[in-house]
Here is the input.
Amino acid sequence: MFLICNLISLNMKIIFAINSNGLGHATRCIPLISECIKKGMKVYIISNYRAMDFLKDEFKNTVEKYFILPDYSFSKKVFGKKKVSVEKFLMYLPMYLNEFRNEHKKFKKIQKKYTFDIIISDARPGIYDSEVPSYLINHHIKIPLQGFLKSSKYITEFAFFALKNKYKKILIPDFETNSLAGEYTHDFNYLNEEDYEYLGLISMINKKQNKKKDIDYFFSISGPEPQRTVFEKKIMTNIKKIQGKIVITLGKPEKYFKKKEGNVEIYSFLDKKKQSEMMSRAKLVITRSGYTTLMDLAQIGQKALLIPTKGQPEQEYLAKYHLKQGNYYFSELDDLNIPKDLEIAERFLGYKTKKKTKDATKKFMDIILKK
Here is the structure.
């Protein structure tokens, strides 16, 4: 089977279309892209903004070609300084559907010229070809909201139900049991079992063996603007209250710098190797409760204090879900109490699983190379 898969993959052209809202979609695609390159496939990438900069820095000329293709206007209309407006998202939904259609038209021109054999879309619903094996990677299938929007989980799942015929399979980066995403990826009302496949966790982080826990606190600042900057300012104003060795990464890959201020090391950005090292060395990680981040933490079995992005339903849900599961403590950014919250977070052991990224990448390759 291994030999057959290698013969099939040789010289096949595969394109990854990656959502550029933050870096999470890009980082979780790294192991999948790396495995495709390793198998001899010709890899192409579509993305934009910081996500594209990050991917170019990671893969350089091992990727055949990079296509800059703007995706969606969520960040301009939905992401505010104080919160993410779900109401605005629903109000602008018809416009976003039109953006999906326009994205598909642009992709068809690219596909006509390059004739890709396999298409992978990570949260870019406009990227597919009905005549070519196309796969959609996504985990927010159902988005459970509170109050008058609680029916949203049915609406969002139905949207994926409407999309399913455009893709050979929806690939969900989660486990069927001991879920990382909870209701987001389980108990479907419209999707049938043949419509999707659970891959497991996918993380670019590799645990550094034999690394001493010599960093007391590792702060990973990330997310879409302007909320990334709001997070950064809040941490910087409170950092002097903490004793011990502290490392901060600002999540800004466009311009690299490093500086040290007393017991604090600040990096503008950390590449995959350095991020893995810092997370492995840290006694506690302080980070957003984004789904990719949770997969990174699970990959290395790390403790963490989660700080969800205000008004972002997914992060708020995941923070509460993992508190209920007894995996992680969380604090709202406005209510952050340093060092008290850090002390409480250290009592939680984190999410534990024996199945890691290597298992998910193997399953991914088996699926896309299956005849």
Summary: The chain is about 40% helix and 15% strand. The chain has a mean pLDDT of 86.
